[in-house]
What we know:
By secondary structure, the chain is α/β, with parallel strands linked by helices. It has helices at residues 13-25, 36-45, 50-56, 87-94, 101-111, 127-138, 157-171; strands at residues 2-7, 29-34, 59-62, 79-85, 115-120, 142-143. It has one domain: Flavin prenyltransferase-like (Rossmann fold), CATH 3.40.50.1950. The chain contains seven helices and six strands, in the order E-H-E-H-H-E-E-H-H-E-H-E-H. A six-stranded parallel β-sheet has the order 3-2-1-4-5-6, with helices on both faces. Helix 1 links the parallel strand 1 and strand 2. Helix 4 (87-94) crosses helix 6. Pfam families: Flavoprotein.
Amino acid sequence: MKVVVCITGASGVCYAKRLLEVLREKSVKTALIVSESGKKIIEHELDVDLDYLISLSHEYYENSDFFSPLASGSHMFHSVVVVPCSMKTLSAVANGYSGNLICRVCDVAIKEGRKLILIPREMPLSPIHLENMLKLSKLGVVIMPPIPAFYGKPKSVEDIVDFVVGRVLDNLNIPNNLFKRWGDIWDE
């Protein structure tokens, strides 16, 4: 299994960091692409740098690299997770505009029938955002805003991040125990 992780210019790169850490722990092969705005958000929001995130991935490609194997439908990968997903990227994907490698990889995932998960980080949502999300959802794209549940009584930001990452892993069919599941809370 190979998961392509894309980081765009929206707040919430802590989700991408944790996803890459867990995928590495589970020996899942990853490719990483980071937009220019994503690089700036990493500097602002994380206590680690881009090199750390690159070290967690098996492959790294610049967002301008259209010669990357990921740009071709003949290159095999299982799924793509865009975390966080800016509304600019979501709009480009919804409208088939592959102006960079991240959008092209999403386009490949859609056209080849592979799993695509977008984790949009914006609020409130405008009608344009919602229409783009609905359009993509109708194409089979998983739209997964990073909205935590609180039934597990999170004690830290890390617990909230783990809930969201755990749900992403669930959608990738990767077993995990990053959070308390609904049925589990009754067993306490």
